[in-house]
Amino acid sequence: YRAKGGPQHYMFYNREMSSGLSERIALARDLKAALNSDDDQLSLVFQPQFDLATSELVGAEALLRWQHPRHGGISPGVFIPIAEERGMMLMISNWVFDASCRQLLAWQAAGVAFRGRIAINIAAQQIEDASFPQHAAERVRSYGLDPALFELELTESGMMRNIDLAIELAGQLSTAGFTLAIDDFGTGYSSLAYLKRLPADKLKIDQSFVRDMIDNSNDHAIVATIIGMGRTLGLHTIAEGIETAEQASALLELGCQEGQGYLLGRPETAEAFARRWLG
Ligand code: C2E
Ligand code: MG
Ligand code: MG
Ligand code: MG
């Protein structure tokens, strides 16, 4: 049967349904097929990122969506872990780079101005692939685009899994011209000592702290500490998951430069994103 609902209708195929080994193997097989065909099962949505002080659009995070022909929309929270488990992250990230490059070129061709960066999520697994930074930069350049147009998001916990490799990879990514943001920051137990050695550009405050920062003084203190760490280390800070005006103004007051979240803009198709945000 067919799950009803369009691309917005996701989380139908949930974590419990994909908990069995045979289901996971079947999903991985279907995902591989989707990656290798051009039948539009996979797509990117774009969520805007803003300068909190000026409200200027500074970037967009590209987030992967999968519309399965039989199961309907499947959340990246379900299929990304399966893809990681099956060693498919390089395939995924190549697909996301290609789609992002084609989108930037399409916007250019249509004369809509996007002056920000595209933020792309990179899985921890790719830290172990020494050729990744060079390959990613070559891939972007093969479209005639500059790696400086891309900000790569690596999770703090993923980098802490192998801090020495992460430091090396971060150096190569920045040499290749990419900007590097540490995603889900605050959940990965890194220390100032490690952060000092990591050539990152930005800390992305995890949404779990932003969610409760108004009511929970511990979370407020954590957010303040992260912003302070950023300032000390000369890193920009961006907060994710901003849902209320109170959160946005508290973050601005604490000195957080950038923000992303449903209050400011939801992830949308490229067409909707351009209509709403690009002139
Ligand atoms: P993430 O990189 O931390 O992305 C942020 C997630 O928070 C996204 O969920 C986004 O839609 C959601 N979000 C944004 N603003 C708000 C808000 O105000 N409130 C709430 N409650 N949520 C908000 P999404 O798209 O489901 O992605 C989940 C995770 O899946 C991402 O977390 C990322 O780790 C992973 N992911 C998504 N696309 C890709 C991809 O192309 N490659 C890789 N490696 N991972 C991806
Ligand atoms: Mg991210
Ligand atoms: Mg994040
Ligand atoms: Mg997150």
UniProtKB/TrEMBL annotation:
Residues annotated as domain EAL: 24-279
Name of the molecule in the record: Diguanylate cyclase
Organism from which the protein derives: Azonexus hydrophilus
